[in-house]
Design a protein that fits this description.
Layout: E1 6-10, H1 20-35, H2 41-61, H3 68-74, H4 76-82, H5 88-91, H6 94-105, H7 113-122, E2 126-131, H8 135-144, E3 154-156, H9 157-160, H10 167-174, E4 183-188, H11 191-199, E5 203-207, H12 216-219, E6 224-226, H13 229-255, H14 265-273, H15 279-298, H16 329-341
Parallel strand pairs: 1-2, 1-4, 2-3, 4-5, 5-6
Helix pairs in contact: 1-2, 1-6, 2-3, 7-13
Length: 362
């Protein structure tokens, strides 16, 4: 029996792997010096990472691919200068830089990583990774966390030769999957990453623990949003189950050979029932439907038209006046058109008038 064609591709650094011990290393090594310049260690670390990602992306887009870690080391002193430190090389040394880069090489797993992968695999998903980092370093992060992936399931942009979020990165991974019955997701704690993958054909799953604010106005909606990695896995698995229930309902409707031709109310009702999300919605619908049935039963029989141009109302006192020779051509045409559109039954609004003038004009 073939395995399910269900896959979740993860960003790694910042999503599966936390930056926390990198920030702690900056504080322990440079914290007291930074404070004299009113520079926050965590904010410096964030600016350093973000600036490195920007330069990595811009170089890649310009046709010059440089590995991310090389850029991270190169722009350290520039980042210190942009933080307001007039003489960065007097505050920090190359030894300080190497200490911090060593901390970055030893990043630890994000809380709940192993649980997240386990939940997805138990639900039939294959787990993949797409990283801007180098294979040896980043796959080492996962291995140290007890969440290693098979080599064929780990993809580095170094191999592709272009960096995220270029569409070629995501398409490179998509091309590895059989398109028949494919259910494929991209999971990240970076909205720019998840949204870029989504535009290339993935479903998007975003965890908020890193960025906090989704900024949906610029990135757009995701199929799944969660606060942490286990919650992200739950959302992905639950989304698939929800889609499966919807497909089962559609299949049930097809098996009943439902048709809505000629205003088939019962068929329409069955189709509507198949779309309800829970029992409360279904119960509300059934009550409304029963009220409609009772209203129809109370409707005077003379209001039902058989398709002939005359109404046998049996009484001159009735508010409904039979067709007469005085009825002009326009009125007759209008009534016949309405009969045709309603299948021989005129709407109640057609009979609202209690009187009719002597010329038969409605």
């Amino acid at each position: 029996m073939s395995s399910p064609n269900k896959h979740v591709v993860f960003d790694v650094v910042g999503t599966c792997i936390s930056y926390e011990n990198f920030f702690e290393a900056i504080e322990s090594r440079l914290g007291p010096k930074l404070k004299t310049h009113f520079v926050n260690s965590r904010l410096l670390g964030y600016a350093w990472i973000e600036a490195s990602e920007k330069e990595y992306t811009y170089l890649s887009l310009s046709g010059k691919y440089v590995p991310f870690f090389s850029i991270l080391g190169s722009i350290f002193y520039r980042t210190l200068g942009k933080a307001g430190i007039a003489e960065p090389r007097e505050l920090a040394t190359d030894a300080d830089l190497e200490f911090l880069l060593t901390a970055f090489r030893g990043l630890k797993a994000q809380e709940g990583l192993v649980e997240c992968f386990d939940k997805l695999r138990k639900a039939g998903f294959t787990v993949w990774a797409l990283t801007a980092g180098d294979t040896k370093r980043v796959s080492g992060y996962l291995e140290a966390a007890g969440a290693s992936l098979p080599g064929e399931n780990f993809v580095s942009c170094d191999t592709i030769g272009v960096g995220k979020p270029h569409p070629d990165c995501y398409k490179y991974v998509l091309d590895k999957f059989d398109k028949e019955g494919l259910d494929v997701w991209f999971a990240a704690a970076h909205m720019w990453d998840a949204s870029a993958a989504r535009r290339c054909g993935f479903k998007g799953a975003w965890a908020s623990f890193w960025e906090k604010e989704a900024c949906l106005d610029i990135f757009g909606e995701m199929e799944v949003q969660a606060m942490d990695l286990p919650g992200l896995a739950d959302g992905i698995v639950g989304y698939a189950a929800k889609k499966k229930r919807q497909q089962e309902r559609e299949l049930l409707a097809e098996e009943k050979d439902i048709t809505t031709d000629n205003g088939n109310d019962e068929a329409s009702r069955i189709q509507q029932k198949a779309t309800f999300r829970d029992e409360d919605e279904l119960a509300t619908f059934e009550v409304q439907h029963q009220q409609e049935v009772e209203e129809d039963a109370e409707e005077p029989e003379e209001r039902r038209i058989t398709g002939t141009p005359e109404l046998d109302v049996g009484s001159s006192s009735s508010s409904i006046v039979p067709y007469s020779s005085a009825e002009n051509e326009y009125t007759l045409t209008k009534r016949l058109d309405m009969e045709e559109q309603t299948g021989g039954r005129l709407p109640k609004s057609y009979f609202k008038q209690s009187t009719r003038n002597s010329h038969g004009i409605f």
